[in-house]
Design a protein that fits this description.
With 198 residues, the protein is α+β, with helices and mostly antiparallel strands. The chain is built from 7 helices and 9 strands. The chain has a single domain, classed as NADH Oxidase (3-Layer(aba) Sandwich).
Length: 198
């Protein structure tokens, strides 16, 4: 079963925004620019996730997450001892992409900060969602392991196609996959996290 959830805005992490923007030091000018960009972006942001919990199985030494073949040492290590996995896709929405495109034409410095804000928002959304699921799992004596994503370690980007097919991302949260395997909206994440007992 595929579930969808709309989350509240996660707490802003300005330190992460600066890290993504590669801003060194704590210049007051940068702080003001970040504050301005945050204020402009808030109305363009949404926090949507679709997810499913799938069984983990091995067949002839091959690992499967539901029906998805997972030929990856990175995944095997990340979900070690898991009997189930959380498969999810998260996006902060298309209007934010439009904001970045607009400022790419008229204010490159704002565009850089907005790109950093988008990365921070997407990761913060994933963190908030995983914390929510972990809290729910604790009630049944289970817990969530750290997540991994296609493109990380030896996890093939091609796995995106199977994740999108299983989660029906376009219908559920308006997230599409281009032929190049880039997601649209750009500031989106797909991930896998093991679920273990104890």
């Amino acid at each position: 079963m595929i579930r969808t959830v709309n989350l509240e805005a996660p707490v802003w992490n300005r330190r992460e925004i600066k890290r993504y923007a590669r801003i060194q030091g704590a210049s007051e000018e940068y702080d003001k620019l970040i504050d301005t960009c945050i204020a402009e972006s808030e109305s363009a942001l949404s926090y949507r996730v679709c997810y499913s919990i799938l069984p983990v199985r091995y067949e002839n030494d091959a690992l499967y997450l539901g029906d998805i073949a997972a030929d990856s040492q990175t995944i095997q290590k990340a979900i070690r001892d898991a009997e189930e996995v959380l498969l999810f896709a998260a996006t902060i929405g298309a209007p934010f992409d439009g904001l970045i495109r607009r400022y790419s034409r008229i204010s490159p410095s704002k565009a850089v900060i907005l790109q950093a804000i988008g990365a921070e928002r997407a990761e913060s959304l994933c963190d908030s969602f995983c914390e929510m699921i972990d809290t729910e799992l604790h009630e049944s004596g289970k817990r969530l392991l750290p997540r991994v994503s296609p493109g990380y370690g030896d996890i093939a980007l091609l796995m995106q196609r199977e994740i999108f097919a299983v989660l029906d991302c376009p219908r559920k949260i308006g997230l599409t996959l281009e032929d190049s395997l880039l997601m649209s909206p750009r500031k989106s994440v797909t991930a896998i996290a093991g679920i273990v007992t104890g």
